[in-house]
Amino acid sequence: MQDLHALVVEDDPDISSALVETLEGAGFRVSSAPDGRAAVDIAAADPPDLVTLDLTLPHMDGIEVCRRIREASDCYIVIVSARSDEVDKLIGLEVGADDFVLKPFSPRELRARVAALFRRPRTASAVEEAQAQAPRVPAPSQPADEATTIACGAGLVINSARREVQVDGTIVELTRIEYDVLEYLATHLSRVCTREEMVLAIWSSALTHDHHLVDVHVANLRGKLRRHSDATWIHTIRGIGYRMDREGEGRRTGGGPYLVARFDSEDWARGLDF
């Protein structure tokens, strides 16, 4: 295994020791931090590939730690917490966490979830390397001469080789999972995608059975797209999942601060509706 650095952020010595042992057993080089400030400093000095993060920490809470690490790093972040309130999970995912594991945790399940995360390409270079090793078969929505580009109408274009999303030529800043959700829906244009299939395809593991993960990331994705256009590409299919349609150019209109404020709350309600 290549040299992969994991950072365990946990103030309980016993749980920290268990996490370190689990990740070292999986082949990681592991550092640990007992509080939020130390975690941010270690992540800056020795960028991790994986962070396991408690929410209740001294000096700086886990949400703020997650936010700060995510601003500078594309590493995988798994929240490991005893706080089971849905709002904690939603906020953690919104600020950039990739997964959420409840304490007490099973070392076997944690390793399986981490392995599932690392099966997804993390960067554009990783995607390009994977594509170089296996020929790409264009999806029906992708022209054969532009296999890496998906045009979704109303100015929305997805470049899968670069993992880049643009609306009217402006790059939309998305987290890794938000991009994965958008690309999955875009490669299945006009087809209803169930939450179950999206969990399996994006998280690559049946262990990630919390379908609210999909709802949260779709809601965040809609909000970010609305900052650039009021076009509606992603539709909620009540009780089933989501469908993405190619928007007609004639429906495109400009956005703005008013639209951001107005649509964000609507999109959250729509995204979490099942």
Characterization of this structure:
The chain is of the alpha/beta class and 274 residues long. It is 42% helix and 18% strand. The chain has 10 helices and 12 strands. The strands form 3 sheets. Strands 2-1-3-4-5 form a 5-stranded parallel beta sheet, with helices on both faces. Helix 1 packs across helix 5 (107-118), helix 2 packs parallel to helix 3 (62-72) and helix 7 crosses helix 9 (212-226). Residues 124-146 and 249-274 have low confidence and may be disordered.
Compile the SSE list and pairings:
Elements: E1 5-9, H1 13-25, E2 29-33, H2 36-45, E3 50-53, H3 62-72, E4 76-81, H4 86-94, E5 99-102, H5 107-118, H6 124-133, E6 149-151, E7 156-159, E8 164-167, E9 170-171, H7 176-186, E10 192-194, H8 195-203, H9 212-226, E11 234-237, E12 241-244, H10 257-271
Parallel strand pairs: 1-2, 1-3, 3-4, 4-5
Antiparallel strand pairs: 6-7, 7-8, 8-9, 10-12, 11-12
Helix pairs in contact: 1-5, 2-3, 7-9, 9-10
Short description:
The chain has about 270 residues and is of the alpha/beta class.
Attribute tags:
274 residues, alpha/beta, 5-stranded parallel beta sheet, 4-stranded antiparallel beta sheet, 10 helices, 12 strands
How large, in whole angstroms, is the Cα Rg?
Answer: 19 Å
Shape: elongated
With strands numbered from the N-terminus, the spatial order across the biggest sheet is 2-1-3-4-5
Largest sheet: 5 strands, parallel
Topology as a string of helices (H) and strands (E): EHEHEHEHEHHEEEEHEHHEEH
Mean pLDDT, as a whole number? 79
Put simply, the count of helices is: 10
Helix content: 40-55%
Low-confidence stretches: 124-146, 249-274
